[in-house]
């Protein structure tokens, strides 16, 4: 049985595991949002950055990619993803149904935000998000790099996210 992982942020451009198949996909009932304070990878506890998370919202659907884990690599991939994504308890690991662009529906591993966690910051205005992203840096590098790479890879695969596109332009202006 194939292990699928839904990528909507850094997994688009840095999955960190061997991918056997990559297909554009949609996760209904969730929105991609900079709704998680990053205190490890793209910010610090004293100067947090922002990272994307899947925020439950029945009125939305998140477009991203379904990543099929290479056969025989499932256990090591799960270990890797849990170390990477569950560094704090802000993300919750769930298996959710996603719709692939080719018509298939598959269960995929998804990392969704825990809205009760202290790192949750949903509802922040886009301008405030831009101000945070333009200045924050963490253990994995500048917050700008995370935004720029995500926006670029969404564009490369033909996916349109108006909020990310606005943030990409605004942060580039602020960071110059």
UniProtKB/TrEMBL annotation:
This is glutathione-specific gamma-glutamylcyclotransferase. It is an enzyme of class 4 (lyase). Its EC number is 4.3.2.7. Keywords: Lyase. Pfam families: ChaC. It comes from Roseobacter fucihabitans. The gene is chaC. CDD domains: GGCT_like. It comes from the Bacteria. GO terms for molecular function: glutathione specific gamma-glutamylcyclotransferase activity. InterPro entries: ChaC, GGCT-like, GGCT-like_sf.
